[in-house]
Design brief:
Blueprint lengths: L1 E5 L3 H11 L4 E6 L2 H10 L3 E4 L5 H6 L7 E4 L4 H15 L3 E5 L21 E3 L1 H14 L3 E7 L4 E7 L9 E2 L3 H4 L5 E8 L2 E2 L7 E2 L4 E7 L3 H8 L8 E5 L3 H12 L3 E6 L2 H10 L5 E4 L5 H6 L7 E4 L4 H13 L4 E5 L3 H7 L6 E3 L1 H13 L4 E6 L6 E6 L24 E7 L2 E3 L12 E6 L5 H7 L8
Parallel strand pairs: 1-2, 1-4, 2-3, 4-5, 5-6, 14-15, 14-17, 15-16, 17-18, 18-19
Antiparallel strand pairs: 7-8, 8-13, 9-12, 10-11, 10-13, 20-21, 21-24, 22-23, 22-24
Helix pairs in contact: 1-13, 5-8, 5-13
């Protein structure tokens, strides 16, 4: 696929890094030469310096034969205008734009062909906020993602010493949980996937990746790890867009929320935007005396959500030392995230990974409706809808054991109308089934997508 990426900042770099490994033909356009040079040195792609809102720049970048435009510059207006030009002058088939301003999502009429010609909006702030909220709802979980309109969940949990699954082989899951529709799809030990087979014995401290009927998710999680006290008191360091969104959502759900923000004018803005029951504190999350005065030891969850990785790491380590029960930190740099994950920081959240999960479902071909990257990038979980019949589909009417999946890939679950199925080799895929596939490497994604493409004949 020929992909044109506008913007070489954090989001654009993450998009390029993720998609270039899948043998796409990628061109990146940005006005800043330094970041373009960095991308060209690291990856097999083409770069062009220039303003993407200029027709000549888009033309030189190859817009005329581009399959997909991803506009993720820092400016909403640049992204919107670029999509408009790409559609009207170059007839680019698909156009995705990163839009920060939340009001655009409320006016879809601005996005269509009569407006800015945007097929899909990507909001990193919205993606991260949604993900953080799921972690607060499931305090025992390390990751929670949903499929099939929330009917199915994939949850990662660190196994506790008192869990009934500790020291138990994977194939005995149904004996331990006879009334829970769930399957263990992988086990991580010391940060590395075991690619667990049925005989793998789960040990305390292992991270278990579980596919589960969402109605059973809370029960399953609490049997893998001792039930934690529900979250009520939340303290947030950083009152940027993510902090603001999350605080507003939590306040509406009757959580007790405090925000620490170092910029005085931003504090005034937050106080005007948020309900009166949200306490705004002017200061730094790394100020030990401030945290002690605000009784950090009574906080159920601490979230470090500034734009500075070092600040987030230091404030999270401090909050944990002072007694915060659970600490969650935004960390942009991949190396920092790997270093801090599972140490004194309970969960390190990568904004780029959360954004990529939203973006990838618009990039994938076939009837792919959702894609989520699992913790530490060990695999991608993909939801695809099976369409057609045995004559036009590679999956419909076929036994799971007969489907030619790439090496290491596996079908973890099916959603058939309102029924959750955990398939075995003899389960037959039906049209309109939602199929959850776990794929170990990005390079294999195209093969899985192709399985779900309907054609007059696939031979």
């Amino acid at each position: 696929m020929k992909i044109l990426i506008v913007g070489a900042g954090r989001v654009g770099t993450s998009v390029a890094e993720n998609l270039v490994s899948e043998e796409n033909d990628i061109t990146v356009v940005d006005v800043q030469p330094d970041q373009l040079g960095y991308l060209q040195e690291r990856f097999d792609l083409r770069v062009m310096q220039g303003d993407a809102t200029q027709v000549s720049v888009l033309e030189a970048a190859g817009a005329a034969d581009t399959d997909l435009l991803i506009a993720c510059a820092a400016s909403d207006s640049v992204n919107m205008v670029t999509c408009k030009i790409a559609r009207q002058l170059f007839n680019v088939p698909r156009r995705i734009a990163r839009i920060r301003a939340p009001e655009f999502a409320d006016h879809p009429e601005l996005m269509g062909d009569e407006g800015f010609c945007i097929d899909a909006l990507i909001s990193p702030e919205r993606s991260v906020t949604t993900y953080l909220h799921s972690l607060i709802e499931f305090p025992e979980a390390l990751q929670v993602v949903e499929f099939a309109e929330g009917k199915l969940s994939v949850v990662t949990v660190r196994v506790g010493h008192g869990s009934p699954m500790a020291h138990t082989p994977v194939d005995r899951l149904r004996e331990v949980w006879p009334d829970v529709t769930a399957r263990i799809v992988d086990v991580l030990r010391d940060g590395r996937p075991l690619h667990a087979g049925l005989g793998t014995v789960i040990a305390p401290g292992d991270e278990v990746v579980l596919v589960v009927d969402s109605r059973h998710a809370r029960r399953a999680v609490r049997q893998l790890r001792e039930a934690e006290k529900s979250v009520h008191r939340v303290m947030i360091a950083g009152g940027g867009n993510i902090g603001l969104r999350l605080a507003r959502q939590l306040a509406d759900e009757n959580y007790s929320v405090r925000i620490i923000e170092r910029n005085e004018k931003r504090c005034e803005y937050l106080a005007a935007e948020l309900p009166s029951n949200v306490l705004i504190l002017h200061g730094s999350g790394t100020d030990e005396s401030l945290l002690e005065r605000e009784n950090i030891q009574d906080m159920d969850t601490w979230l470090a959500l500034t734009s500075d990785d070092e600040d987030n790491i230091m404030s999270s380590l401090l909050a944990k030392r002072l007694g915060a029960r659970k600490v969650i930190s935004l960390i942009n740099r991949h190396a920092y995230g790997e270093l801090m994950q599972g140490s004194h920081i309970d969960i390190a959240v990568s904004p780029s990974q959360a954004t990529m999960s939203e973006l990838l479902r618009h990039v994938r071909r076939g009837d792919v409706v959702a894609v989520h990257r699992l913790r530490q990038g060990v695999a991608e979980a993909l939801e695809a809808v099976a369409h057609g019949d045995r004559a036009t589909s590679r999956v419909v009417g076929r036994r799971v054991g007969d489907i030619r999946l790439p090496k290491g890939a596996a079908i973890g679950a099916l959603v058939r109308e309102d029924e959750i199925l955990l398939p075995d080799a003899d389960t037959v895929i039906e049209s309109d089934d939602h199929v959850i596939v776990f794929v170990p490497t990005r390079q294999q994604m195209a093969r899985v997508e192709k399985l779900f493409q309907v054609s007059a004949s696939f031979f």
